[in-house]
Amino acid sequence: MSALEAVTAPRAAVRPLLRVCGLSKSYGETVGCVDVSFTLYPGEVIGIVGESGSGKSTLLNLLCAQLEPDAGTVEYDVGGEGLRDVFCLPEPQRRRLMRTDWGLVHQNPRDGLRMDVSAGGNVGERLMAVGARHYGAIRGEALDWLSRVELDGGRIDDRPKHFSGGMQQRLQIARNLVTRPRLVFMDEPTGGLDVSVQARLLDLLRGLVREMGIAAVVVTHDLAVVRLLADRLMVMRRGRVVEEGLTDQVLDDPHHPYTQLLVSSVLQV
Ligand SMILES: Nc1ncnc2c1ncn2[C@@H]1O[C@H](COP(=O)(O)OP(=O)(O)OP(=O)(O)O)[C@@H](O)[C@H]1O
Fold this sequence. Notes:
By secondary structure, the protein is an alpha/beta fold. It is 40% helix and 24% strand.
């Protein structure tokens, strides 16, 4: 464990949830990400920032096993029994992780929701994937989750294609969190929304993540998002991590010239 990780790791849980070593991916001649390593502890939120094309999505897709790396490993504490390389898990077990222990919040809610299934069905489907069978209990839990993400319970039978972008994103969050995952991957969770909708959604997300003690990897180009959500921050440029540390430290006192540029360009807005 690095000195930084020792400081930021929750004391009661020093066993890592996710350990990433030397992760690299190229697309032909184009660099996706290069030699990325970090460790994430239960309940910790790490932000990954960088300009467009810096490799954030590539890294996220590697972490949640949607993309195979050229080199490096992604290890996850499967079933609380210790770290295992996710790329060496049998496919059904990897898929099960995705349905139960992990959540994935896409920038575009259309990628994370079933638009032709009711709001309640979208939430209930995840519960059924972890074994829930009682219709009344599933509907009750779905209703509870709609209220937790501030959606009107009266819309439970409506399809998300009739919801606003902000409402769809809140439903996607409910669908992901209802199974109480230990780790959630978020790709620009407030991207594409109005500023006022973004602020409320961020507040809601922060509350839920903290309250449920969920660990998260949040990819964004928006420094305000990581300021609010992330304990730690990694800054990427051209596929490499150029700076990392506690979020406030990195944003208030950036050392790498590229981070300084990112921070100052936001201040000038
Ligand atoms: N499927 C792909 N095929 C070829 N090149 C790709 C592919 N996906 C990403 N790249 C390239 O890899 C590099 C990193 O892209 P990536 O999407 O990971 O960056 P990003 O930081 O997430 O950007 P953005 O914020 O715009 O989504 C870019 O040069 C991009 O063009």
